[in-house]
Amino acid sequence: MGSVQIVTTILAAAITAVAVWLAVRAVLKMVAVIRLGQPAPERFSDKVARARTMLVETAGHTRMLKWGVVGAAHWFVMVGFVVLSLLVLEAYFEVVTTDGGLPIIGHWTIFGLVTEIIGVLGLVGILVLMAIRLRNRPTRPGGRSRFTGSTMWQGYFVEWIVLLVLIFGFVIRGFKVATDHFEFPFWATPVSHAVGAVLPDWADGVSVAAAIKIIISMTWLIVISLNVTMGVAWHRFLAFPNIFFKREPAKPAGSGLGALRPMTSQGKPLDFEEADPEKDQFGVAHVEQFSWKGLLDFSTCTECGRCQSQCPAWNTGKPLSPKLLILSLRDHAYAKAPYLLAGGGKDLTGEEKATQAQLAHLDVLALAEADKPLIGTAEEGGVIDPDVLWSCTTCGACVEQCPVDIEHVDHIVDMRRYQVLIESSFPSEAGVMLRNLENKGNPWGAPQNTREDWTKGLDFEVPRVGEVDDFEYLFWVGCAGAFEDRAKKTTRAVATLLNEAGVTFAILGEGETCSGDPARRIGNEFVFQMLAQQNVETLNEAFEGRDKAKRKIVATCPHCFNTLGNEYGQLGGEFEVVHHTQLLAHLVATGKLTPVQPVDGGVTYHDPCYLGRHNRVFAAPREVLGDAIAGDLTEMPRNSERSFCCGAGGARMWMEEKIGKRINVDRVEEAMATGARTVAVGCPFCSTMLSDGVNGKGAGEQVEVIDVASVLLRSVKPEQPQGGKETAPIGG
Ligand code: SF4
Ligand code: SF4
Predict the structure, then answer these.
(1) For the segment 574-615, what is each residue's pLDDT rounded down to a tens digit?
(2) Cα(75)–Cα(599) distance, integer angstroms
(3) Element containing residue 52 per DSSP (H, E)
(4) Residues with CB under 6 A from ligand 2
(5) CB atoms < 10 A from the CB of 80, how many?
(6) Digit-coded pLDDT (tens) for 341-359
(7) For residues 9 and 1, what is the distance between their CA atoms, to the nearest angstrom?
(8) Ligand 1 within 6 A of CB of 396
(9) Are 174 and 166 a contacting pair, CB within 8 Å?
(10) Is the dihedral of CA 555, 559, 562, 563 positive or negative?
(11) Pocket test for ligand 1, best of 315, 324, 390, 393 (most atoms within 8 A of CB)
(12) How far apart are CA 279 and CA 275, in angstroms?
C-alpha cells in the first residue's frame, strides 16, 4: 500500500464511519416517528399477496411506467442504484490497492458486462430525469409545474449525486484500463475501454477516483441522514414497505380507492352503538392519531407532484394540492415528534399527558409545533387550512397516480371525520344535506312517498321486491335516480331497456334510502352507518335464502354502486353489484338488446370517478356507446384512469365552490373542445354538473349531456319518445 492508498483508505473509512453512524441515527428516528401512529393490524394480513405486489410494482415499475419516458428512465436509475451499489462496495477495495476488486463476482466477465450496461443505461436515465426536472421547474416562464412546492434543491442534489457516482464508476474502470489492471474484455466493457483510452497512465488514479466516488456516495448518505424528511432520497428505501403495507395488496391498481376504511380507534373498527368520544378516537385531530401506515405514507412521499398534476382542485386554483397536503403532514409530524417522544400528547378529553418534568428540556420549536391545530387557518397557525380539507372531491386521481401508493383520500376523510363528528365544523351549506339524510333518508329532503314517481307513464309494470320472488336483479334506483329530474330519465331508460331485454328485476321503492355515500365522504360516519345498516337489513331481507352470487344488484349511480358493492361488506352486506353500463354492455353483447339506429353528431364520454378510477369500469360504457353511436367515440385528452372529476364527489355536490375556477366548467370546456354534440355520462351527479357547465357556457342548444343508457335507448328504440332536453334538477 503506497502513501496515496493510505490517505484514500483513511478518508474513505472516516467518512463512511460518520455517514453510517448518522444513517443509523436517522433510521432509528424515522422508525420512532412512524411508531407514534395508531395500530393498523390489518396491514399484516396476506403477506404473500403483499410481497408479490411489492415486487411487481417495484421491479416492474407498473405505476411509474404509466408515465412513459419518465417511468423508463426511473427504472434504469433504480436498477442502477441497486446493482451499482456493488461497485460502491468495490471502491472500498480499490482505495486500498490499485488492482483491487470485489472478491469472486468482481472477476466474472458477466459482472463486468452487466454493470457496464446498467451503468450506461443509468447514465442515460438520470440525464433524462434531470432534463425533465429542469424542463418542469416551477420557476420556468409560463405554465404550471408538478414540482411547484417541492423542495427543488433536494431533487437536484440527488440527481447530481447519481450522475457523479455513475461517471466515477467509469473513471475508475478507465484508470484500470489505462494502467493495464483491467481484466474485462473490450466486447463486454467498451465504454470503460473508451474512457481508459483518454485517461493518463496514472498508477494511483484508481484509488483516488475510488476515494472520490466513496466521498460522493457518503456525502449523499450524510445529507439524507441529516434530512429525514427528504423523501426524494428516502423513498429508495421506504417505497418497499409502503407498497408492501398498502391497504388492499391483491388489487392490481388503485388499492387506496373504492371503499373507504372504516373509522377505527386503537386499530379496531368503531361500533357507534358503544363508541364514546372520551374513550374512542373519532377521526383524526392530531397527527399522531393517523395510523403508523399514515406516518409511513408521509415519510415516503418523493415530492414528484404526479398527484398534484392530476388534482381537479389544484388545477382549478383551489388551495388543495395532495402533494402539499402530504408534505405539510410530514413536516408537522417530524417537527412535533420530539414532544411526542418525550411523552407529550393530548388524551381524548384534551388533557396534556406529559408531566412538566418530561417537557422541561424540550426544544421550544417542538413545543410550538405541538400547539398547532391540525386543521386551522393561517391566522390560527393550522397545519392544514379548512379550505384545503374541504376542497377535495375524493376523486382519487392522486391515489391513482402516486408511484409509492400513498393513500391521500383516507387521510383527508379521517381528518374530515373529526371535524364533522366532534367539532361540527364543515361548510355550512352541507348541513342541509346532512339534516335531510337524517330526517328524510335522501340528500334533497324529498318526501319518501315520491320515490316511485319515476315509474309513472312507463308502458310496463315495475315490480317491487315482495311482489315478485323470482327477480334476477334488484334495481337500486338511488336518491338522484328517484328524485332528480335528469337522473329520472336515466332510471326510466334503464328500466325500459331491462324490460326490453327480458331481464327480471324489482325495486325496493319506498324501502330504499340513501346509500350513505355523501355522509361518509363528508366525514359523518355516524349518519353513514345509520343509513347503511338500515339498507343492509332491507337488502338482506330482500335476498333472504340466496347465496352471494344470486344477490345481484344493478345501480345507475356510481356512488351507490361503490358503496353497496365495496363498503356494505364492512357492515355484513355481501352483494354482487353491477353498474347499469356493465349490464347493458352484457345485454348488447349477448344479443338481448339490438341497437338499430346509430346516434350521430359526435359523442364523447366522461368517466365518473367512482365508476372508473375507483372501480376500474372503463370498458363497459365505451362498449355500449361503441354499439349505439355512428362513428367512433371521441375521447377527451383526460380520460379513463386520468379522467378529470366533474366536481361533485366527496359530498362537494352539496357545497358551494367559492374558490378558483369551477371544476365542472373546466371539464365542460374540455368536452366541448372535442367538437362532440353529445357528452355521455354514467353518473347522475356528473350529469348535473356537466349540464350546469354546458348551460353556464350558453351552449345548452348545441351540446347535450345524457346518460349512456339514454344514448343506447335512442339507438334501440328510436321510436320511443325521448322527452326532449333534460330539465332542471330538484332545487337546482
Ligand atoms: S382525491 Fe381528487 S380532489 Fe382530492 S386531493 Fe386527490 S386528486 Fe385532489
Ligand atoms: S404522487 Fe405520491 S410521491 Fe408523488 S408527490 Fe404525490 S404523494 Fe408524493
Answers:
(1) 999 999 999 999 999 999 999 999 988 899 999 999 999 999
(2) 45
(3) helix 47-59
(4) 301-307, 322-323, 326, 401-404, 406
(5) 25
(6) 999 999 888 898 999 899 8
(7) 10
(8) yes
(9) no
(10) negative
(11) 393
(12) 8
Rounded distance between C-alpha atoms, residue 182 and residue 170, angstroms:
12
Q: Specify the range with the lowest mean pLDDT, choosing from 97-106, 118-127, 369-378, 621-630.
A: 97-106
**The C-alpha cell of 203 is what?**
498508477
Give the chain's radius of gyration (CA, Å).
Answer: 30
Ligand 1 mean position, distance from CA 650 (Å): 9
Q: Which helix (H) or strand (E) holds 705?
A: strand 704-707
Q: At 700, list the grid cell.
A: 345548452
C-alpha cell at 164: 457523479
Instruction: Report the Cα 599 to chain-centroid distance in Å.
Output: 36
Share of the chain above pLDDT 70, in %: 98
Contacts of 633 (CB under 8 A, 6+ apart): 603, 604, 605, 622, 625, 626
Alpha-helical runs (H) found in 180-321: 190-198, 205-226, 231-244, 292-300, 306-310, 312-315
Place of cell 337488502: 539
CA distances from 29 to 33, 202, 365 (A): 6, 44, 17
How many angstroms separate the Cα of 54 from the Cα of each of 57, 382, 451?
5, 35, 47
Instruction: Give strand ranges (E) for 241-353.
Output: 264-265, 268-269
Compute CA 132 distance to the chain's CA centroid, rounded to the nearest angstrom.
23
State CA 549 to chain mean position distance: 30
Place of cell 357492515: 571
